[in-house]
Amino acid sequence: DAGITQSPRHKVTETGTPVTLRCHQTENHRYMYWYRQDPGHGLRLIHYSYGVKDTDKGEVSDGYSVSRSKTEDFLLTLESATSSQTSVYFCAISKGGPSTDTQYFGPGTRLTVL
Amino acid sequence: GQNIDQPTEMTATEGAIVQINCTYQTSGFNGLFWYQQHAGEAPTFLSYNVLDGLEEKGRFSSFLSRSKGYSYLLLKELQMKDSASYLCAAHYGGATNKLIFGTGTLLAVQP
């Protein structure tokens, strides 16, 4: 299994509070991704990174920001959490780009916004 | 957009064979993945098809027809532990440059 960890694994928070999720990899892969998974929607890309300090938006980026200050860490921040952001969040990594290489997933973070 | 279509649910019997179909839009298509996801767990990589034809990997095989925008995952000698969601995902290049996922097929294997 790819060396990917996510923290926290579970979090309950209240509407309007900021939340930061962390993804950590030990594979030294260049690309890192944040997805959310909701019933009936499948996995949807929030943001991805193609290197330190290099990020790009996915299809559902509104309300989310990301940062990557080190190769191994990719942070996802919900500036002011809303109930619509209740979801399971998965981090993924790949050696090559999003249209050419296999992505490997972390264990996920279950976030509940009350 | 790039729509990925696959059945929502399927049921099969232990020891049998099941085929899970997936259709996708062909414009900008690079290749097709299948992932397995057990309840409450992360998706895990099963297969990647770039060329037309069937690729076999133990009990699991995956087929691709690029011209028809069609793939299937074939599971043989079904076991109870095969009960899971199976995610079809397509690589799109060009301006899209993304991996697009279907909503997944929930397979229930019954004794």
Largest interface: A-B, 20 and 23 residues
Q: Low-confidence stretches of chain A at least 5 residues in length (pLDDT < 50)? A: none
Low-pLDDT regions of chain B = none
Order of helices and strands of chain B: EEEEEEEEEEE
What are the defining features of this structure?
heterodimer, A: 114 residues, mainly beta, 7-stranded mixed β-sheet, 4-stranded antiparallel β-sheet, 0% helix, B: 111 residues, 6-stranded mixed β-sheet, 5-stranded antiparallel β-sheet
Write a structural description.
The complex is a heterodimer of chains A (114) and B (111). Chain A is built from no helices and eleven strands. Chain A has strands at residues 4-7, 10-13, 19-25, 31-38, 42-51, 54-57, 64-70, 73-78, 87-94, 104-105, 109-113. Chain A is mainly β. In chain A, the strands form two sheets. In chain A, strands 2, 4, 5, 6, 9, 10 and 11 form a seven-stranded mixed sheet that branches. Chain A has a four-stranded antiparallel sheet with strand order 1-3-8-7, with no helix packed on it. In chain A, a hairpin with a 2-residue loop joins β7 and β8 (73-78). Chain B is an all-beta fold. Helix content of chain B is 0%, strand content 59%. Chain B is built from no helices and eleven strands. Chain B has strands at residues 4-5, 9-13, 18-24, 29-37, 44-49, 53-57, 60-65, 70-75, 84-92, 98-101, 105-110. In chain B, β4 and β5 form a beta hairpin. The radius of gyration of chain B is 14 Å and the shape is globular.
What's this, in brief?
Chain A has 114 residues and is an all-beta fold. Chain A has strands at 4-7, 10-13, 19-25, 31-38, 42-51, 54-57, 64-70, 73-78, 87-94, 104-105, 109-113. Helix content of chain A is 0%, strand content 57%.
